[in-house]
Write a structure and sequence with these properties.
The complex is a heterodimer of chains A (337) and B (266). Chain A is mainly alpha-helical. Helix content of chain A is 73%, strand content 2%. Chain A starts with 16 loop residues before the first helix and ends with a helix. Classes of the chains: A mainly alpha (337), B alpha/beta (266).
């Protein structure tokens, strides 16, 4: 489609290589910058600690990161519709506690797993109903969820930690190894790949992006946009339940205190990766790098023997700076040209 | 001039619409032939938008009837109108900025292929289909992979029109498609309107840019305070006459038409 056609629409987008590269940077600038930032973080922690770049620690990070990665994949869908799910930490806690309670009550472990995942989906559907059908802002709905769901977990456990029988095969979900890789890491990779394919290659993923960019346009093209919005909250509930199961299995106990502040780590990972909080713009590769970065920072600061009271402050500052650089260098800068 | 012949695609008869005490339209008539471009003009508040919204199903008239291809139709919603192949181009309501050109053209009807039983978008076919759609209408686009947000205003408008045309409409309504476009882009959009009408689509063009009317329209219909005041074939009129009809009196415009001779009384 080159050459001069009679209907020449003035081309603001030239076709030369430099322009194409600029476009590529514009479209995936967030991903490039978080990739650079991630590499820098790994380099820094490798230099200032002896233990960071060891096989044991890297496998440890992989295992620890799984719940964050799984929920961040789901959260990418939610945020891309211009929504948010603040309740994921609470859903994680509720499932965590309920899994331990039902295992203690003698429910077979495969049933427990299916039941817990179903609970996550149902919670997501209820919240999604208020967001998609009733039009209440997602922030409010899931903030209420954050409070009420953790409250339910506290009520069920009375605040106690509930042990899981160490002999139960359930624990393998969190502790098992397959071909030298921790089981949670394998689950996370499977979820990440599935998330990537659904987000980029299916019409569902396309409509998720469309709803965030211009919901009216998607509705007018005959798509049931309410169902799309409802679905992303169900997905996020499902992912949070998965994370709750993995953590219960890894720790061998269930507690209503699990996953405190988890939603913030997840949102930080997604936004760090370059997904826009305003919707319409999401990236799975970015989310993967964002989650890795959040995990590396957390792990690295501990290995630096930084005071645990200082860790959250440093973490917060690093994340803010990363997002600020991302905005400055790759968003507003490109917009102005 | 407008007899009851088979080439008449739309006839709106005695359309009235009030909003509270304000009569927006009073017994307005509109006729549109197949493949014709009709310019709909009038001052702000003359009822152009109300009339076009009634034809596109967004508003329901208080009285009057709409006849489409000889059959009386009633539109309760824009979806009803679209089913009867009456499309309105709303640029802001039809494009997703962060989706590419092909994705926007085919939004809601993406071709699919199955891999291991999973239905995925057939992106190669999407880009091929989109390129064909654009070529068919003579729309030039550097790539169908560009995100719409990276396009200029004229290119975006062309995509919105191309998308509407792809639904194979009988009638296409465009409200100010050339507003806020650069000169070259206005030409491209006007060319596109001509291409569309040459394919047999009837077009209603609402615009304040009177010079555009004389480039693409076959006929101009003027509304004044919710009433028909005039209809002119392009060959029988000029900008000054249209300006006078729009404002409802003799009017010496400094912005339209030839400049008054130096020293002429104003």
């Amino acid at each position: 489609m080159t050459g001069t056609a009679p209907t020449l629409i003035s081309e603001r987008v030239p076709n030369d290589l430099r322009a194409r590269f600029r476009l590529f940077v514009h479209d995936s600038g967030g991903v490039v910058s978080i990739a650079v930032f991630f590499v820098v973080m790994v380099a820094v922690f490798s230099l200032i600690t002896d233990t960071f770049l060891t096989q044991a620690n890297l496998l440890n990070i992989l295992r620890q990161i799984a719940p964050l990665m799984i929920v961040a994949v789901a959260m990418t869908f939610v945020i891309t519709t211009a929504g948010i799910d603040l309740s994921v930490g609470s859903v994680l806690a509720l499932v965590n506690a309920l899994a331990a309670i039902s295992l203690q009550a003698g429910v077979p472990w495969p049933v427990v797993v299916i039941l817990m995942l179903a609970i996550g989906v149902v919670i997501g559907l209820v919240q999604g109903f208020f967001v998609a059908h009733e039009g209440i802002p997602a922030f409010i709905v899931t903030l209420a969820g954050l409070s009420a769901i953790r409250g339910t977990a506290l009520l069920l456990t009375k605040g106690y930690s509930i042990p899981i029988d160490p002999q139960s095969p359930f624990n393998e979900i969190g502790r098992g190894w397959v071909f030298g890789v921790p089981m949670p890491a394998i689950i996370a990779v499977v979820v990440l790949i599935a998330g990537y394919v659904v987000f980029n290659e299916t019409t569902f993923g396309r409509y998720v992006t469309g709803v965030g960019a211009n919901a009216e346009a998607v509705r007018r093209s005959g798509v049931n946009t309410e169902r799309i919005t409802l679905s992303v909250y169900a997905i996020s509930g499902l992912a949070a339940a998965m994370a709750g199961i993995i953590i219960a299995a890894r720790l061998g106990s269930g507690s209503s205190n699990a996953g405190g502040g988890f939603e913030l780590d997840v949102i930080a990972a997604v936004v760090l990766g370059g997904t826009s909080l305003f919707g319409g713009r999401g990236t799975m590769v970015g989310t993967m790098l964002g989650a890795l970065t959040v995990a590396v920072i957390g792990n690295g600061l501990i290995l630096c023997h930084l005071s645990p009271f200082l860790t959250p402050i440093v973490e917060g500052v690093i994340i803010l700076v990363a997002i600020w650089l991302n905005f400055r260098l790759f968003r507003t800068g490109m917009r102005a040209t | 001039m407008l007899r009851n012949d088979a080439s008449i695609r739309v006839r709106m008869e005695d359309i009235s619409k009030s909003f509270g005490a304000i009569k927006s339209l009073e017994r307005v008539n509109l006729t549109l032939r197949a493949g014709e471009v009709l310019g709909l003009v009038g001052d702000n508040g003359a009822g152009k938008s109300t009339l076009s919204k009634i034809l596109s199903g967004a508003l329901i008239p208080d009285s009057g009837r709409i006849v489409l291809d000889g059959m009386e139709v009633r539109f309760a919603s824009p979806a009803d109108a679209r089913r009867q192949r009456v499309e309105m181009v709303y640029q802001d309501l039809s494009l997703c900025d962060t989706v590419d050109v092909a994705g926007n053209l085919l939004l809601g009807r993406e071709p699919k292929r199955r891999i291991l039983g999973v239905p995925l978008m057939d992106k190669r076919k999407m880009h091929a289909d989109a390129a064909r759609m654009l070529d068919h209408l003579g729309i030039r686009m550097p790539s169908t992979r560009l995100k719409v947000e990276n396009l200029s205003g004229g290119q975006r408008q062309s995509i919105a029109i191309g998308r509407a045309v792809s639904f194979d409409p009988l009638v296409l309504i465009m409200d100010e498609p050339t507003a806020a476009l650069a000169v070259a882009e206005v030409d491209a959009v006007l060319n596109l309107i001509r291409t569309v009408s040459a394919k047999g689509v009837s077009v209603i063009l609402i615009t304040h840019r009177l010079q555009d009317l004389f480039v693409v329209c076959d006929r101009i219909m003027v509304l004044f305070e919710g009433r028909n005041v005039a209809e002119r074939l392009i060959a029988d009129t000029n900008i000054e006459e249209i300006v006078n009809l729009i404002v409802g009196r003799k009017f010496q415009s400094v912005s339209a038409g030839p400049r008054p001779a130096a020293g002429a009384p104003t």
